[in-house]
Design goal:
Helix content is 41%, strand content 23%. It is of the alpha/beta class. Strand 1, helix 3 and strand 2 form a beta-alpha-beta unit. Helix 2 crosses helix 3 and helix 6 packs across helix 11. The protein binds S-adenosylmethionine. The site of S-adenosylmethionine has 24 residues, from helix 3.
Amino acid sequence: MTFTTGTEAYARHVGRYGAALSAAHADAAGVRTGETALDVGCGPGVLLAELARRLGPERVAGVDPSEPFVEAARAAVREADVRLAAAEQLPFAEGSFDVVLSQLVVNFMSDPKAGVAEMRRVARLAVTSCVWDYAGEMTMLRAFWDAALELDPAAPDEGRTMRHCSPAELAALWTEAGLRDVQTRALVVEAAYDDFDDYWSPFPAGIAPSGAYCAWLDEDAQAALREACFRRLGSPTGPFTLSARAWFVRGTV
Ligand SMILES: C[S@@+](CC[C@H](N)C(=O)[O-])C[C@H]1O[C@@H](n2cnc3c(N)ncnc32)[C@H](O)[C@@H]1O
């Protein structure tokens, strides 16, 4: 698993988009005052914190199979019930939460069908998720993998390796789990970078599949990849902003 390297590197990698994506996800999920929510694969707790702001910290819970992330999520929302667990075996009774959400997780589950079925089991009203559009408009990762493919056609581009990252695949997964009124849509968010190094530095730290690939390369190959990414982003000499698209899915119980 490549999410154990540290929450600080994660925050500068895809985590940079986390707050904006969490707000867009909570809006699209339609969580309302008075409801309870479970964040499955909560990571360091960015969506959990957004849900706590909207619903109250005592009305939200989270699970994640990574110990450092569970600790970080507990620190992010002290009153929330955060447990070490995977989606495939949720430690909650049937219908324990009004809304069950997972953000950027379905594509990492070892058994997504079982994971979504479990999310449905513990939900009373709705189950939602969003995943990056790895093959398309998640610019930060797309630039990285297009640069990697330029240098090594066998690079493990997440646009090809990730499953359940298109609206059709997500809708099929949700429908198969017995969820109803299944709807998909795009969530588009942005993140700002001080300069190119601000973009590049989390990759050699080894976070997520892209970082794991980068950290695995030798020094020369890393330098070539850095240069190719720089070019693909338009050789920025100062601050810049990138947009990122995620596909969202919602189904009712
Ligand atoms: C890209 S991170 C997303 C974290 C967080 N949801 C966010 O939006 O920042 C993927 C997360 O999925 C978790 N994960 C991996 N496999 C999982 C599984 N089978 N069930 C639940 N979470 C899982 C990882 O530990 C990691 O925290």
